[in-house]
Amino acid sequence: MKRIIMLVAFLVVAGVTMAQKYAFVDTEYILENIPSYTAAQEQLDQISKQYQKELETIHGEVEKMYKDFQAESVLLSEDMKRKREDVIITKEKEYKALQRKYFGPDGDLFKKRQGLIKPIQDDIFNAVQELANEGSYAVIFDKAGGLSMLYTNPKFDLSDQVLQKLGYKN
């Protein structure tokens, strides 16, 4: 859907302004050349691994509790069975709540990503916007995004200029 919208927008702009200048950038390339982005990604990976390890430990505990319950259920009274089931269900709920807290749409990892990555992305966007204004470009495409480009002429690639504007050498 995003591709269709961008293609339609491009065709409308191209039809109206045939004499306009177009360029593209490769945000993947730009991000790979920004050390703070690489450091942020590594930090996020470490946090993710830590969260995953914690969740795996809790999941293992739940699995053990359930297996123990199955093995001992023959010997337990109905009241004791119900109590053990309640403990297992409570532990499973805790596991799922912690999973949402860490990896959910508004989870800790998402918030941490927003705090570390979004400022870098905002800087890139601002640098692209400045280059567009300075170079009088009508449209600047992102080659790394979902837009398919069958051919790109390197002379219209502004990725290195974006890095320079951000103060990085390629």
Automatic annotation (TrEMBL):
Lineage: Bacteria, Pseudomonadati, Bacteroidota, Bacteroidia, Marinilabiliales
Name used for this protein in its record: OmpH family outer membrane protein
Family statement: Belongs to the Skp family.
Statement: the UniProt record of this protein carries the keyword Oxidoreductase: no
Source organism of this protein record: Gaoshiqia sediminis
GO CC aspect terms: cytosol
Gene Ontology molecular-function annotations: unfolded protein binding
Alphabetized UniProt keyword annotations: Signal
Gene3D superfamilies membership: Skp domain
Superkingdom as given in the UniProt entry: Bacteria
Gene Ontology terms describing biological process: protein stabilization
